[in-house]
Amino acid sequence: MRLGLNRDFDKVWVAQAVSSLGSKITREALAYTAVLTLAATPAQMSILSVAGAVPVLLLGLFVGVWVDRLPRRPLMIVADLARAVALSAVPLAALTNTLQVWLLYVVAALMGIFTLVFDVADRSFLPSIVRHDQLLEANSRLSITGSLSEVGGPALAGLLVQIISAPFTLALDVLSFLWSAFWLGLIRTPESAPVPEEGQKTPDIWRETREGILTLWRNVTLRTLAVAALLQNFFGWFFGTLYVYFAVRELGLSSGVVGLLISAGGVGALIGAASAQRLARRFGLGRILVLAACISSSAELLVPLASGPLVLIIAMMLLAQFVGDIAGEVYAIGDTSLRQMSVAPGLMGRVTATMSFITGGAGPFGAVVAGVLASATSARFTLFFAVAGFALAALWLALSPLRSLHLAPDSD
Questions:
Q1: Which of 13, 140, 269, 375 has the smallest set of CB atoms within 10 Å of its CB?
Q2: What is the pLDDT along the chain (412 residues), one digit of tens a residue?
């Protein structure tokens, strides 16, 4: 019995459902391993975070060249197996009493590299197994399982860490990547082999990378989405950097309440994922992107505005998290689907990698600016500044041709 759009999409869906949950558990369990098992300092925790982000900055643009040169499904399988091997080093080191913090840095960096390869190949592979008119539905279904893992992953990670310890929680996560590789190996839809240009056997990395960048820039739809992504991710890291600090230090909320607020965001993302396809078909994909960006920026304004009685503060923060994540998930699904519809298959990897570089590269710089600005002024003022950045991204989209786009244009 089919679960989704076709048998091979079902296999991708089943693979993603478990590996997505495993990825969320890995994110939490690596941090718990550093804090609880190795008593890592704040500086070491910062290095651990940076180690996972560096691959996007260093390799983000070039990964797309290889994704466009090689069959995507085998790349995804290799990336899954490589992540399983890299992650297994932590519980093995714990068993032999040789676990040190530098090993976590190495594992975080390797996980970042192979996750980058997997994600670029995954987004480029999806149009090979579903029709273009099914991409929105396919991305919605995948986002639903992603949202469920965001809701349940952190809580499950905390429970497993308490029961079997952080390093051995990672041993269970190894199984999720093996599960994903197994189901991807069962896919039978033939994937057209990439043909090297002018008989080249090895890629001209710089030329082909430049081709991906120019393709994105010359296509008005892709350029519009790229500029919006740059603004959203740069200012989004303001919230990522300061949200917990602002909620605990300036609003006086407990860690338990903050956790519930974040979980409410996961529930909102689940609703957004389930609603995206219906909304886009009714109102048009372009209009929904513009509307979702406007709603998201408006909802986030409630965070720096939060003040007054404790009940009112919690209500404002809860509404911001819930509504903001609904709109954010609708936007993410529409953005991904529109890019997949607008790019030729032979360029999909490079365009996807360029977008990943833009979104992943802007974030750390946003975090630095947020820290400097908050130190010079206050966290509340800095969050107001971030909301202004979100509003600028929404305005950019509202003034673009996307506002009248119903169906995705063909890519030249």
A1: 375
A2: 344 567 888 888 888 888 888 877 887 788 788 878 888 775 677 677 778 777 777 777 788 888 888 888 999 999 999 999 999 999 999 999 999 999 999 998 999 889 888 988 888 888 888 887 788 888 888 888 877 777 777 667 777 877 888 888 888 889 989 999 999 999 888 776 555 555 555 557 777 788 888 888 888 888 999 999 999 989 988 887 788 788 878 898 876 777 678 778 878 888 998 888 888 888 888 899 999 999 999 999 999 999 999 999 999 999 999 999 999 999 998 898 888 888 877 788 888 888 878 877 777 788 778 888 888 888 899 999 999 999 999 999 999 988 877 654 443 3
Output the 3-class SS for the chain: CCCCCCHHHHHHHHHHHHHHHHHHHHHHHHHHHHHHHCCCCHHHHHHHHHHHHHHHHHHHHHHHHHHHHCCHHHHHHHHHHHHHHHHHHHHHHHHCCCCCHHHHHHHHHHHHHHHHHHHHHHHHHHHHHCCHHHHHHHHHHHHHHHHHHHHHHHHHHHHHHHHHCHHHHHHHHHHHHHHHHHHHHCCCCCCCCCCCHHHCCCCCHHHHHHHHHHHHHHCHHHHHHHHHHHHHHHHHHHHHHHHHHHHHHHCCCCHHHHHHHHHHHHHHHHHHHHHHHHHHHHHCHHHHHHHHHHHHHHHHCHHHHCCCCHHHHHHHHHHHHHHHHHHHHHHHHHHHHHHHHHCCHHHHHHHHHHHHHHHHHHHHHHHHHHHHHHHHCCHHHHHHHHHHHHHHHHHHHHCCHHHHCCCCCCCC
Q: Are residues 255 and 358 in the same domain?
A: yes
Residue where a domain terminates, one of 122, 153, 187:
187
Asked if 341 and 390 sit in the same domain, the reply is: yes
Task: Say if residue 151 is in the same domain as residue 221.
Answer: no
Q: Looking at residue 64, which CATH number applies to its domain?
A: 1.20.1250.20
Any domain includes 409: no
Domain count across the chain = 2
